[in-house]
Design brief:
This protein is α/β, with parallel strands linked by helices and 261 residues long. 42% of the residues lie in helices and 17% in strands.
Length: 261
C-alpha cells in the first residue's frame, strides 16, 4: 500500500495518503523506523483527519543514494505537499520526525499549520552520545546487526514494548545505509537559537522514561517557541512515544489538531 513520487531533482519518496475530508496531517517517523510506526494514530485519528504518512530518506520505501541532512528531508515533505495540492498541513513528528517537522516550520512557516513533536530535541546531538552512535556504526559494519545490538537499540527507542517485528526489519538494513542515516542524525545542526522563528502552534510531548533525550529537551522547545502548549510529560513513556504509549498520546494529539490543524 502506498505511492511513490519523485521530488527535488530525482529523490524518490514513498508515502501513504489515508484520505478523508479532514484537515491534512503529515506523520513523520523516527530513526530506523518507517511510516508503519504510526498505525496507532491512523487507527485512532484517521476518521477525523487526512493522515499522510511518509517514509523519510533512507527509511522504508524511500532510498538515500547519497549523503543528506534533515533540511533536505524537510524539503522532500514540502514538495510532497505540492504534489498533493496542499498549501499547508499540520505535522506530527516523533524523535527524528520532530527534527524534520521543526525544519519544515522554519523553511516554510506559512505551510505548517500546527506542529506536534514527541520525544524530540532542538539541540545538536550531545558529543558523547554521538561518539557512542559512531561506535554502533562501526560494530554494525564489522559484525552486522547482531541480536545484542538490536536489543540495545530497542531498549533505547522502545523501552519495554515488544520490538520483535521492528528488530526483524532492522536486521535487514545494510551497513552502508545504517552509516548514512546515522551520519545525518549525529551531524545535525542545533535549532535552539532559531526556535523563536517558529510561528505555528506547537505541542511537545515527552516520556519520563525516554532513554535517548531527557525531558528537558522537550521543555527547551516549549520555552523557545512563541505559541507552545504546556509540555506534556507521559509518566513512564518511552522514546518512541507515539508508538509505545498511544493511549496517553492520542487524546492530546486529537485535542491539539482539532483546535489548530
Amino acid at each position: 500500500m502506498g505511492s511513490t513520487v519523485t521530488v527535488n531533482g530525482g529523490q524518490r519518496l514513498h508515502f501513504v495518503d489515508y484520505g478523508g475530508t479532514g484537515a491534512p496531517v503529515v506523520l513523520l517517523h523516527s530513526f530506523l523506523m518507517d511510516l508503519e510506526m504510526f498505525a496507532p494514530q491512523v487507527a485512532a485519528l484517521g476518521r477525523e483527519f487526512r493522515l499522510i504518512a511518509v517514509d523519510e530518506r533512507g527509511h522504508g520505501g524511500t532510498p538515500a543514494d547519497e549523503s543528506f541532512d534533515y533540511w533536505d528531508v524537510a524539503d522532500d515533505v514540502l514538495a510532497l505537499l505540492d504534489e498533493l495540492g496542499l498549501p499547508k498541513a499540520a505535522v506530527i513528528g516523533t524523535s527524528q520526525g520532530g527534527f524534520i517537522g521543526l525544519r519544515m516550520a522554519l523553511t516554510a512557516p506559512e505551510r505548517v499549520s500546527a506542529l506536534a513533536v514527541l520525544g524530540t530535541s532542538a539541540a545538536a546531538e550531545d558529543a558523547k552520545v554521538a561518539a557512542g552512535y559512531r561506535e554502533l556504526v562501526s560494530t554494525w559494519s564489522d559484525q552486522g546487526p547482531a541480536d545484542q545490538l538490536l536489543d540495545m537499540i530497542a531498549n533505547i527507542c522502545l523501552g519495554t514494548a515488544d520490538a520483535t517485528s521492528w528488530k526483524a526489519k532492522w536486521s535487514t538494513v545494510p551497513a552502508e545505509k545504517f552509516s548514512r542515516i546515522m551520519a545525518t542524525l549525529v551531524h545535525r545542526d542545533g535549532l535552539l537559537t532559531r526556535l523563536a522563528e517558529v510561528r505555528c502552534p506547537v505541542l511537545a510531548m515527552h516520556g519520563s522514561a525516554d532513554a535517548a533525550y531527557p525531558v528537558c529537551r522537550g521543555a527547551e522547545i516549549v520555552e523557545g517557541v512563541a505559541h507552545a502548549e504546556p509540555l506534556v510529560v507521559v509518566d513512564g513513556g518511552a522514546h518512541f512515544l507515539s508508538l509505545t504509549d498511544p493511549e496517553a498520546v492520542n487524546p492530546h494529539l486529537r485535542k491539539f489538531l482539532t483546535e489548530f490543524a
